[in-house]
Every structure is written in structure tokens, then in C-alpha cells.
Design brief:
The protein is of the alpha/beta class. The longest helix has 16 residues.
């Protein structure tokens, strides 16, 4: 059993509702690939007009300060005016990050998106997807697909590259493989994100769902999937697998939950990779200094970084090592490797981030633990709302509440619930 993580030992990212590293724009709900358990799967696909998108961007500009604008969906590359959407986002001051499954991406399309202002891509690639050209059974078999997209971005140059992978009870063992794979490509794979799977049969186990005062069937909005396995995963479950793949793994920053300040909703670790080996993980103080410096000089909290920043790990570990023991230890390991082999003088060290995202949890008393200071806030009818629960607003006009179920309870126990 891996040692547990104490949130008090980590840096709590300073992001909040009004001042955040990321905002979330959905120009379309159309998608060209079906993913098991997708929380947008039940929405009738349509493209928003450029005028609608412009209005949503103006809401963000008025209500929320952000470094990056995640452009997603659906799949945003399906939108006929995606180049205009990217261009508008960049012109209004954000770093556009395109969240896509990559199916519609080509080298030429990538160049056009970069010219329009795209700062980075986050590719969702995992075995939950029904990809017509890739018949695979394991996450490892998709590594060639991941590498193809990473190289595509690298060929164009100057674009941040991240990969999302949904993790279920059935695929958690494979996270170790993905961490080792990313370690082999720190020059072109800048971030790996593991998102823990949720579905009604996992979350609403002993609860009933209500919209306003009316009891509803939540699986009319969110679909169950056998791919999701039989148990709810938490960040600590993935941490155990990551430490198995990389014994030095040590997270440094987090976002807590709205109902539990100790829950690890977004768990961030940044490692330094040199000559294919992990030199160590950045400290909480490093993460804090990066956020403070960026906000001081740029006016926003930092989210995605470009490839040029990732290549500064040798210099960064030296400079931050002047004030931080953990970063100094990383630099000394790099220095030792260079002294041992002079050829290492000409090799770069890279920053590479690993993120674990733990979605909503429902406590026995019905409280819903969401991501506090959620980065994936989107616009709905002129208001800022959770993007992962947008389907509830569209289907019921409100967010669904959870109440402990009275099924199987005695009459006295039921009265206590009521």
C-alpha cells in the first residue's frame, strides 16, 4: 500500500472562480467518436454560431480572468468555423488549447490552427473510445497513436502537447505504462492527465436524484458503461500505480473539493527528465513561485506552458535550487550525470507534468464534492457553470441534487433521512 498524501504538504493552487488558469468553451456538441460513459453523449449534436461563441467569450472576459481557453465539445475540430474560434480566443487574450480526440487532425490542419493562434492541444485517447481505424484492447496499444499526434505537433513546432486518458477500474493498471511511455518522450509529450471515470451506477449507489423537488432518473442524462468497472476510483488509487511506475513520483500541488478540503480533486506533479531518466519531482515551493511570478507579471495564473518552457528544466532547477532544497537536489543529479558522461553536456533536461483529476463524489449524507475553483467552467445562458454537469441544466433546468435513498430502510430510519 502506497503512503497516503496529506493535502497540507502540498501547495493549494491559487485558482478561484473569478481568477483561474483555465476556462472552458464548447463551440459544438458534435463529435466524430463515441466514448463510453461520455457526459455529453446524450446531447443532440449541434454547432453554435460564431455570434453565439463571441457572446460566450465576452461573458468570460467580463466575469473570469484566465490564462488559457480550453476549446472543446463534442470535438471542436468538427466545427466548420474552428479557425475563427481559435483566432477570436487568441485575439481576446487567451492561449487557445484545443481539446480533441485528434481524428480530424492532419499536418496541414495543424499548421492552419497554429497560424490562427492555437497554443496547445490536449488529445483524449484511450480504450473507452470507439475509434474506427484503431482496433485495440489495451492502452499500450494506443501509444503509437499518441506518438503520431505528438510528432505531428512537433513537426509544426512551438505547440504544447498533452494527453488525457480516462481511467476506470478496468484500466487503472495501465496508467503505469503510460507514465513510462511519457518518460521516453519528454521533448514532445509535455503533460499526461488521468481522469477518473464516473457514471450513475458508481456514484448514485445509495442516493436518489432530484431536480428541484421532483425525483428523476439520473441515467436518462448520464449513461452507465461496463467499461467503467465496478468501483469508484480516487486520486490515491492512481497515485499507487504511478509510484509503481516511477518510485520518485511526488505531487506538489492540488485543488480541493467543495465539500471536503482534504480531497485531491486536481493533483499535479511536475518531474524533470534528463537523458531518459527522472531526476526528481518539483517541490510545492516551485509551483507556488511559478504561479506568483506569472500572476505578478502576466496578470493571470499559469496553466499550460509551451515547449520552450519545458526545455528550461536544467536552468530552472538551478535557479529555483538557490532557494529550494528539493530543486537543488534535482540540479545536482543533473550535474552528476553530466560529470559522469561529458556527452550529457549537450543534452536538455525537460519539465513534464502529470495530473490526476478526481470528479464528483457523493458523500453518504448527500453532499456533492465538486472541484473547488473548477478550471473547466463554461458558459450557459450567460452564466458560468460546471461544464461536466451541463447536461443537467439542459435536461432539467437545474443541477441535480442527491438525497440518501430510503430504499431498504426502516420507517424510523426513513423519517430521519427526510
Amino acid at each position: 500500500m502506497s503512503r497516503s498524501i496529506d493535502h497540507n504538504d502540498l501547495y493549494r493552487l491559487p485558482w478561484n472562480y473569478a481568477d483561474n488558469g483555465i476556462s472552458w468553451l464548447e463551440p459544438t456538441s458534435v463529435c466524430n467518436i463515441r466514448c463510453e460513459g461520455c457526459y455529453r453523449d446524450s446531447i443532440q449534436g449541434r454547432h453554435k454560431s460564431v455570434e453565439e461563441i463571441q457572446l460566450e467569450l465576452e461573458v468570460f472576459k467580463k466575469m473570469r480572468k484566465s490564462d488559457c481557453m480550453s476549446i472543446t465539445g463534442g470535438d471542436p475540430l468538427c466545427h466548420p468555423a474552428i479557425l475563427d474560434v481559435v483566432r477570436m480566443s487568441r485575439q481576446m487574450g487567451w492561449k487557445p488549447i484545443i481539446n480533441t480526440n485528434g481524428a480530424a487532425l492532419t499536418p496541414e490542419f495543424t499548421r492552419k490552427l497554429k497560424q490562427a493562434g492555437a497554443f496547445g492541444f490536449t488529445f483524449h485517447i484511450d480504450t473507452s473510445q470507439h475509434r474506427p481505424k484503431e482496433k485495440v484492447e489495451t492502452e499500450a496499444e494506443l501509444n503509437d497513436v499518441r506518438l503520431r499526434y505528438a510528432k505531428m505537433l512537433d513537426d509544426v513546432g512551438g505547440i504544447a502537447c498533452s494527453f488525457n486518458s480516462t481511467v476506470s477500474d478496468k484500466t487503472i493498471e495501465e496508467t503505469a505504462n503510460l507514465v513510462r511511455w511519457a518518460q521516453q518522450h519528454p521533448d514532445i509529450v509535455h503533460t499526461m492527465v488521468f481522469i477518473l471515470f464516473r457514471s450513475p451506477d458508481l456514484v448514485f449507489t445509495v442516493h436518489d436524484a432530484y431536480a428541484y423537488a421532483r425525483k428523476i432518473e439520473i441515467d436518462s442524462t448520464y449513461k452507465d458503461s461496463e467499461w467503467g468497472g465496478e468501483r469508484v476510483l480516487y486520486a490515491q488509487d492512481v497515485v499507487e500505480k504511478l509510484r509503481g511506475a516511477d518510485p520518485l513520483y511526488e505531487p506538489s500541488a492540488f485543488l480541493n473539493g467543495t465539500a471536503d478540503p482534504s480531497s485531491l480533486k486536481w493533483l499535479l506533479a511536475t518531474r524533470v527528465v534528463f537523458n531518459g531518466k527522472v531526476m526528481g519531482y518539483c517541490s510545492p515551493r516551485f509551483q507556488e513561485l511559478v504561479q506568483v511570478i506569472h500572476h505578478t507579471f502576466k496578470g493571470t495564473y499559469l496553466s499550460y506552458v509551451g515547449p520552450s518552457f519545458g526545455r528550461t528544466a536544467r536552468l530552472g532547477s538551478f535557479l529555483f535550487g538557490l532557494v529550494d532544497r528539493k530543486m537543488r537536489r534535482i540540479f545536482l543529479r543533473i550535474l552528476g550525470a553530466m560529470l559522469k558522461n561529458p556527452l550529457n553536456l549537450f543534452r536538455r533536461a525537460y519539465f513534464q507534468s502529470l495530473m490526476v483529476i478526481q470528479p464528483m463524489t457523493i458523500f453518504p449524507d448527500g453532499r456533492q464534492d465538486m472541484c473547488d475553483a473548477c478550471p473547466d467552467i463554461t458558459v450557459y445562458q450567460g452564466k458560468l457553470v460546471w461544464s461536466c454537469r451541463l447536461a443537467e441544466l439542459e435536461n432539467f433546468g437545474c443541477f441535480v441534487t442527491s438525497v440518501p435513498s430510503v430504499k431498504g430502510k426502516t420507517e424510523k430510519e426513513a423519517e430521519g433521512v427526510a
